[in-house]
């Protein structure tokens, strides 16, 4: 019986992969270019430019010497594609087509990861629902046709949730290494997951203390240790290029923290003003006003090289410390507001309402799924914690709906259970009514 069930899961995973790949391809290569339901920005954050320079042997740079501004994995992916397929600066959108195809593969793999996650918690039927929901949910498709890391981050988040569940259920060294490995790769894609392994480790330790069971200290430490080993080469690289002044994955965290105060203004979280364009200009002016109090200004950092990036971080950290010490209630207000803007604020008020509606639907279904899981004795705490981890981290810095999109596969695994409960209830009611007639 276990072998038959394993074969059924593999068959379902193959079908879900094909469905996910098909919807991703249709969205990226047909719907997005022809109907333009969203604004399509190819390379707003310069990750593609770094990749092209890497492929040409110019180093990890935004054009002004070595940079510590970005994490390395996504630019390295772009560099590998450019090495194989070449790059036409006159028509960059054509040169990025192979990248978009690979991101469609990431989307299909994300659907499979969601299937495995939900299957592990609730069974194969719910796993299939989760995979299908990921295949069509707008937040899971949004960035497949852009030179941005969200498609890869979405896959990492689904795998992080799966790894966290595996470790929570069986806290051994193998599952600990899986948590640390995925978290490390995610961190080298975007550093927001840097502290993620602390969460499943803390949950396992707390459970052991609460139940007075032996605590697996070794595996808990291994979660963090493996992440450190994965990230160490890049930290060493940053130490070298910065001449010992920078020991992190990427810079500008203080800048993101500062800009979050603009995001938490009523005209944006109440959708009174278009977010796209207006927010960025206002955030630049706000950051510039604060920087000038310390003898620097925003425009001097438009040249992105190691010296400027480190100087901006140093001044920014002083601003962050001042804000936290002199106005803690202002930070608390920003944090609470951004816990919500994380789920709905995008380019325009109408799109924000639509995005928020899909997020609300996912949470309502997830609420039903969590309720049924509690009744059935299924512990879904690691999945909830994965979603809330990223919600909280971004809310502390800068949070709008773009940043919530990678967490949807984990959330939809819970939503799929809620959908299954609702469909089962409706089916039983219909059968009861039919029998009564």
The total of helices stands at 19
Overall 3D geometry?
globular
Q: Tell me the strand percentage band.
A: under 5%
Number of domain modules: 1
Q: What is the string of helix and strand elements?
A: HHHHHHHHHHHHHHHHHHH
* Helix residue percentage: over 70%
Overall pLDDT confidence: 94
Indicate the low-confidence ranges by residue numbers. none
Could you give the distance between the termini? 39 Å
Structure write-up:
This protein is mainly α and 437 residues long. The chain has one domain. Helix content is 73%, strand content 0%. It has 19 helices and no strands. α12 packs across α15, α17 crosses α19 and α18 crosses α19. The chain is globular and about 80 Å long. The two termini are 39 Å apart.
Which features does this protein show?
0% strand, mainly alpha, globular, single chain, 19 helices, 437 residues, 73% helix
Outline of this structure?
The protein is mostly helical and 437 residues long. Helix content is 73%, strand content 0%. It has one domain (2-436).
Topology:
Layout: H1 2-35, H2 47-55, H3 73-85, H4 92-95, H5 97-122, H6 124-136, H7 138-141, H8 150-169, H9 173-187, H10 198-211, H11 217-241, H12 253-263, H13 266-269, H14 278-292, H15 306-326, H16 328-344, H17 349-376, H18 381-396, H19 408-436
Helix pairs in contact: 1-5, 1-6, 2-3, 5-6, 5-8, 5-19, 6-19, 8-9, 8-10, 8-18, 9-11, 10-11, 12-14, 12-15, 16-18, 17-19, 18-19
